Amino acid sequence: xxxxxxxxxHHHAGDEARAENSGAGCRHGGDDGGGTxxxxxxxxxxxxxxxxxxxxxASGKTFETRDPRTGDVIARxxxxxxxxxxxxxxxxxxxxxxxxxPRMSGSERGRVMAKYxxxxxxxxxxxxxxxxxxxxxxLAAARAVDVGECVGILRYFAGAADKIHGETLKMSRxxxxxxxxxxxxxxxxxxxxxxxxxxxxxxxxxxxxxxxxVVVKPAEQTPLSALFLAHLSKxxxxxxxxxxxxTGFGPTAxxxxxxxxxxxVVAFTGSTxxxxxxxxxxxxxxxxxxxxxxxxxxxxxxxxxxxxxKAVELAIGGNFFNKGEACVAGSxxxxxxxxxxxxxxxxxxxxxxxxxxxxxxxxxxxxxQVDKAQYERxxxxxxxxxxxxxxxxxxxxxxxxxxxxxxxxxxxNVKDDMVIAREEIFGPVMCLMKFKTVEEAIERANGTxxxxxxxxxxxxIDVANRMARSIRAGVVxxxxxxxxxxxxxxxxxxxxxxxxxxxxxxxxxxxxxxSVVTPVHGSPWF
Length: 526
Fold this sequence. Notes:
This protein is of the alpha/beta class. The chain folds into two domains: about 50-295, 3-Layer(aba) Sandwich (Aldehyde Dehydrogenase, Chain A, domain 1); about 300-485, Aldehyde Dehydrogenase, Chain A, domain 2. About 35% of the residues lie in helices and about 20% in strands. It is built from 14 helices and 24 strands. It has helices at about 80-95, 105-120, 125-135, 140-160, 195-210, 225-235, 250-260, 270-285, 310-320, 335-350, 370-385, 420, 440-445, 460-470; strands at about 25, 50, 55, 60-65, 75-80, 170, 175-185, 185-190, 215, 245, 265-270, 290-295, 300, 330-335, 355, 390-395, 410, 430-435, 450, 455, 475-480, 495, 495-500, 510-520. The strands form seven sheets. It has a seven-stranded mixed sheet, sandwiched between helices. It has a six-stranded mixed sheet with strand order 10-9-8-11-12-23, with helices on both faces. α1 (about 80-95) runs parallel beside α7 (about 250-260), α2 packs antiparallel against α4 (about 140-160) and α4 runs parallel beside α5 (about 195-210). The longest helix is centred in the N-terminal third of the chain and has 22 residues, at about 140-160.
């Protein structure tokens, strides 16, 4: 996942590159098309949340969070750094070492988490509006997908809290052995800007279920929903100090969490480059365990026997959902030669009805990129693709006169060694390529440093099974894409990281396994 501070080394296309008239598909601004943003939510929480209270940063500093529709400032948010992280960790440590949260039964923790889910659900409209405003998500999708998933994740792990079990061991001598699964302690959770609320709960929920306390560092681009969710946790009865939120920047607040000697585990979602820094910080501090969900360059493979309409639909969703700001985006689309020409034509025709514009407009499919840096980064990759000789099938330029909108861009005549086919772009850019055989598809799908996800469309069960077993990725979706579920483990391999979000496996990163052994004398059996 891309980071604002990460440089891609490519040309950044600036505002001067905007098209005066970006053509069909761009509906910029409100109903009048004049660029006036629609109604936005009130911003109520902009301070750090530490030990159950909203407080200013110790330095008194603040930073701007901007509306990606216009580039205008939404609010100034407290800029936490090392001193604030120290206070948050101290509160989390006190809540873990002496507070009630880890000492509750699992069912009691589950009841509080279920109440938290109810409170979030009651405030769904406000949360969705914050996600749309701060991250540029279409409001309808934020309400149906993001908020719905937040509530579902929280309820899933509320149900998991009393199902954390150890094992009874069959020892080889006159000993009795069993294992305990204990909460690790204070968890540092660093979450990204593309799904701010979902990723908040993907990290926080299993940590709470395990009995940990947490310090959350949301992305500086999208801090508003995390602060709102911290407020809701207080309403739900989560004890003070259990959830703390420190807004700020990666090199200061994020680094302070990663290096902190009293943080027991760090879970991070973001770029591979920052993931390396977090592992380095762990090695240089207290060797805390680290879980990393990082970048991807996922293949989406369409075979000759595929349902053409379904394949095109999945390819579009797999690339352009959330304006391409998704680590699992199926941005390398491989289409078998027998269906390729029909697929390309169908894809181009379908994209004519795709609408880019104000995310508060219900007619819009795609909102703006999250901020100016990401906007320029994506445009830089588009220019790189053109320079390398790829052909623009659709899009290829900015959209509208204001804000961070980009036309959904599809490249053809893409070669595997092109930069646009190798590097994670994290924007609305698809690379369309042709292949001949199953063997070629496997080799090219695996020809990446990443291993997060993959998708394929075929009616042949033998091909599906072979591909699913051959592609080196954390998840393979057959005849579907983005088929994520709180019951299904999610996480990558290779340079996409390690450790799982979602499912009971997500608990593992917040639990330590302890063995307990006692001698047994005079037992009638062993």
